[in-house]
Write the structure tokens for this entry.
Amino acid sequence: MFSVLSNKNFRNLFLAQNFSLLGTGLATVALSLLAFDLTGENAAILLSSLFTIKMVIYVFFSPIAGAFSNKFNRRFYLVSLDIVRAIAAIGLFFVNEIWHIYIVISIIYITSAAFTPIYQSTIPQLFHEDEDYTKALSLSRLSIDLENILGYMLAALILIFYDYKSLFIGTSFGFIASALLILTIFLPKVTESEAIKDIRFIGKITYGLKKYTVLPELKGLMFMNLAVSAGGAMILVNTVIMVRALLGMDEGALPVAMFFFGFGSVLGAILVPRILKRYSVWKLMYFGAYTISIVFIMFSILITLGVFNFMLLLIFWFISGFGYSFVLTPMGRIIRASVREDELSQLFAAQFSLSHLCWLLMYPLAGFLITQFDVIVTLFSLAIIILLATVISSGYIKDKNIHH
């Protein structure tokens, strides 16, 4: 898997992603502490509103970024966005009013919505072989999971010696390091086809989204986005309720549970390139989705029978991590195999937008179900959503006999 790091352009782009993710991880911790500093016990309301704004911005601004991306030198485009994010992160250091947070964070979210899908659409242009591209996707997935862990560890270390606002400086350094690394990269120029050149700007914004309504493989991918967001939302939103309220455990149990989920996801990402040598992308993704749904159904049955303890939670979340990674990691291969190279920016922007729309729907649903009913109903309901989404997706692929 690590052999693709011999490609200098990908290696530096990969390192840029890691510095960017590390900075974002520090910002997440600092933002939580800043919210509590400004609002006290109302911090949860402020944070939930910020995360909602984040999802809305990602849904609506990513397609616009995709329409713009091919009009500029891609390296200049990505570096400029990193610089804006670095400046905005420094601005958080001076925030002392709630409305300041909304303005600065919105700038960071908008630039991230423009940066991430274009970064993702650049990777397939660096590799001609599917096997190498799969390894690159696995490394990218691996770095996201590892940085979630390392980001919290680094934040804890910094907070021993400095005030939490110093974390925003660390965030800025992460974006600056990303920009400097991207400056060392040669990115292939994307030449738009005449068909895309003739499309008006508004049409380019919706170009990728329209592809998702036409191509059967992208319709199938859309429902897989729904499936994985339903599984992820259950774990990310409700683990704290299961650990603290149902099991009555202390605060330290939550990061342990999330670590097991993350560890499963890391191992899953490592295995993806090997598995795809024998099985198709779609088979792996469906296996991952079915795995999560079966875990949720088994868990709900065991809780109904009164068999529920922390060790079972760790085992089930570890297995769910594998399924989560099996669905998410190879998605880029579906997109690359479905469209021309000059369409990748619009398609990855559409994928970024639509996937976050699914999360925007599933986050509140997961919270609503466990609040209004109980964990049994929540697990079973989300498992059904995963199953239905996966079956519908497989219908599009089976009808068209599509294999990757």
Q: What stands out?
A: The chain has two domains: 1-186, 207-399. The mean pLDDT is 83. The radius of gyration is 21 Å. Residues 78 and 115 are 6 Å apart (CA to CA).
